[in-house]
Design a protein that fits this description.
Elements (H helix, E strand, L loop, with lengths): L30 H17 L10 H26 L4 H15 L16
Helix pairs in contact: 2-3
The structure holds zinc ion (ZN).
Length: 118
């Protein structure tokens, strides 16, 4: 199985950026991300924090930890299925669940998932 090369990501939210065209590569996916990054740098500067410091809210951190917990559970389920010599269909189901749990793990914040169309 081959993977696509690692896509460029928004420096604020981590969303995939569109493929680069002519000119300077994009850093942010949208103006709102550019603005939040600017505000973050300004706040960090005022607070005497390093320029690359990231300040997240308790809610954002809790949300990220919830998602990490979900993927950990999904991977433990997959390992248990392997240990139990589960059927191919059962393994496929637990692996799909693991992939779903990790799908947007590289984004700091995601809105609740809409029903899958695939
Ligand atoms: Zn963004």
């Amino acid at each position: 199985m081959s993977r696509d090369p690692k896509p460029a990501r928004c420096a604020w939210c981590g969303a995939k950026l569109p493929a680069a065209t002519l000119g300077r590569p994009r850093t942010y996916c949208r103006q709102a991300c550019r603005q939040r990054a600017y505000e973050q740098r300004t706040l960090a500067d005022r607070a005497g924090l390093p320029a690359d410091a990231v300040v997240v809210s308790r809610l954002e951190l809790d949300h990220l930890q919830d998602r990490l917990f979900q993927i950990r559970c999904a991977l433990e389920d997959a390992a248990a299925a392997l240990d139990d010599n589960a059927s191919k269909a059962e393994l496929a189901a637990v692996l799909r669940n693991a992939v779903d749990a990790g799908g947007a793990l590289d984004r700091l914040w995601v809105t609740p998932r809409e029903p899958s169309t695939s």
